[in-house]
Fold this protein.
Amino acid sequence: MSTTTNHLDGAEFLSAENKGLAEPAPRFKNLTKTCDYSSKNNMGVAAAIPQFQDWREAAHQVKKFSIANLDKLIVQFESNMKARGAEVMFAQDAAEANRMVLEIAREHNVKSVVKSKSMVTEELELNHVLEGAGIRPIETDLGEYIVQLAKQRPIHLVTPAMHFTAAEVGELFHKTLGEPYSAEHAKLAAIARKNLRNDYLTAEMGVSGCNFAIADTGTVVVVENEGNAGLSTATPPVHIVLVGIEKVIPRIDDLPLFLNLLGRSGTGQKLTAYTHLIHGPAVGKKLYVIFLDNGRTKVLQDPHAWQSLFCIRCGACLNACPVYRRVGGWSYGWVYPGPIGAVLTPHLVGLHKAAELPFASSLCGACNEVCPVKIDIPHQLVHLRHRAVNEPSPMNSPFERMTWKVWAWAMRGPRRYAMAMGAVRIGVRVAKYLPWHFGKLGAWTRGRELPKVPASSFRAWWRNRQNTSQPPKEKP
Amino acid sequence: MNATTPFHYKPAPRQDDPPYQKGERVAMFIPCYVDQFFPGIGEAMVSILERLGVPVDFPSEQTCCGQPAFNSGYWEESRPVIRKFCEVFAPYRWVICPSGSCSSMCRVFFPHVDPSPEVLQVSRRVFEFSEFLVDILKVTDTGATFPHKVAFHMGCHGRRELGVFDHPLQLLHSVRGMTYCELGNIEECCGFGGTFSVKLAGTSLAMGQSKVDNIVRSGADVVASGDISCLMHVGGIIQRNPATKHIRVMHLAELLAAGI
């Protein structure tokens, strides 16, 4: 059985009442502010580049080419990488990838693993699997480190501990590491550095993700800001790269384009502090590259959905999304939160398990506006909604379909329309006197007044006007 | 960058060539909620257009654009409604709608459901009201006078699907006596989102509350928008709270018809 879906714990905020969201918890107030700040900052950085929109279009086209030629590009990457002594493997699902990692770990007698930030390893639940095999995983990215110590899951693709305040981190370090409490950023970073330093030196294996796998040179690109990825990939004698198959780009010449976009869209930086280009194992060391499919090839078959594979995991759509800002990343139930998660999750774990996610959007399009590779997320969401109500899924409700059938019948002629609207008018008028509201009406009046019903409709006004004042109109 | 300029301007394909000929008759598409709850918007539209010398027609066979079912995933149910729409408006070269959301349904999403030539043809002739005034009629001053403090709420569909973001502001800036109050976070969705507002009421309300907070902060006593559906939701929240009850919501067309 695949372990991927172990912690698909459902998107709770989509349950009927979703209580508590009208009054967001303080934690999410913090999140709203941070996302907003981050989004505005990114926009400012991008607006300073006149050709930024052209870059986005170019990146979109390069990704389109890459995904369309994935079969050839991966083979090219593989042969280039292998020529320099690295091993390249392919895992169909999370279980297979986990097996591969464990085998390598056993072969090299690994007791602890330093990990740099990787969303794919979250897909594998690698930490959980390693612990099960008696191997200690250590997250080295500061955000991931905090989240790991707090026994939580990342709340964001790029900034996993975004919901923590410095004071909360100070308390956490005090409680879990026995360090003196501090809420100063520099002190907190120093504490993490001190505690992690020894782990880099003693770990027998490093695990990292991969931002771009370049086919024509056979290069793994890892970008980061803290130096932790450099240490965890280069220090231990064994390095495993876990990479989703969609990360391949054709040429090293395309890399600057993506680096420019990724830094700006992710954290509002012109470039991340470190960019590692790994071409093969260092002398006397081992390098394994594991490509993970885990449902991605299925997405390739869907002509509307395949764009979601363009994603470079910058997190811009999360910051911009008004829904994500209020509900936070855990609400999305799986590894990938926010708008891109609402698209990816149903594809990767199966629509029947995550059919509610595409409905977790007001379709405002903010995600599409900021996406550096121009993924058409809102349109993907409406296509997924269409599938969700037609395929076996929790959203496929015969009752709701019946409602819409009645609606469709009523909307096919002016007389039926007048009848239906008459009923609505009466309903809204009467609702005022009802002691309690249920269903959708109750959902509306929970925090909103109903509109006032005017004496006559527009069409009544128009009819009246035509009859009294206007000469007979000519046909258009 | 102007605070109101979207990051990514994406004009939806529209049929505006050959250009509008003086005296050409235009059809009004009045969405159901405007028809039933806000008839004043339609009346204001008629008065503005007729004043500009545009003959207006209201095909009485019209019903709905099909968006509610479409957005909920029920494309099969929305398809006959869309076909009906296209049948009704087929004789007209220009279809004007006082809603960015319904207009974007017609222009952008009709082809997703039914890419037939009959639908495509009509789909591209639907214009959002302010878009029609500014881009097609080249009018930025309707001669309105409105001595109030006004904040403008930008509907997301109009802005991001149609690329209508500058148009209403240009029109507003020529209104006499009006003080424009810049809305903080103008680009953020108000949380209405059609059935989203009742399917995810909690989130929708949280988003709406932020919008109301920004409106209060702007100091405006009137909120205008090209989409009254957003304002039905935002206004509903405003009405619920005695402290904000004095703030009025109105459609751009009503504001542009004020005092003329």
Q: What stands out?
A: The longest helix of chain B spans residues 201-218. Chain B touches chain A through 82 residues (CB under 8 Å).
